[in-house]
Amino acid sequence: MIKFIKFLKVIFHLINFILIGLYLYPGSIFGYILYSDLTRQPKITEDFLNISANHFYAFALLSTVGFLAYLNDKRLQILIKYLFTSSIILELLHLVIPARMFQWSDLLGNVFGVLLIYVLYNLKKKYE
């Protein structure tokens, strides 16, 4: 089990590193790969309730792996603060990155992706 937790921590940090790279790159890497167009952003699914689905999925995935990796770790509270803070800061950086644009729907997707996993974690803790 300890090897699996270490593996999850590596996966968490890898996903986090990739996500930061995708956020800070001035253009859409996936848009370039799929459409040869840095300005076109592919969508996994349509947005819902004015929340960016892509951003929601990305931060829900990152948060899920992070919570699983640090579930029984004394640094879990630091992870929670990091996830919420990074979900906000990464979108705010789009205000200053060329070819990127801040969008409230993206910010909401980021925060709600983290929030969903945080709520599920707290429900699990409550009913254990």
Task: Indicate the topology.
Blueprint: H1 2-24, H2 29-35, H3 53-70, H4 76-92, H5 104-126
Helix pairs in contact: 1-3, 3-4, 3-5, 4-5
Molecular structure report:
The chain is mainly alpha-helical and 128 residues long. The protein has one domain. It is globular. The mean pLDDT is 93.
Distance between the termini: 20 Å
Overall pLDDT level: 93
Radius of gyration: 15 Å
Classify the helix fraction into a percent range.
55-70%
Q: Segments where pLDDT lies below 50 for 5+ residues?
A: none
List keywords for this structure.
single chain; 128 residues
Quick gist of this model?
This protein has 5 helices and no strands.
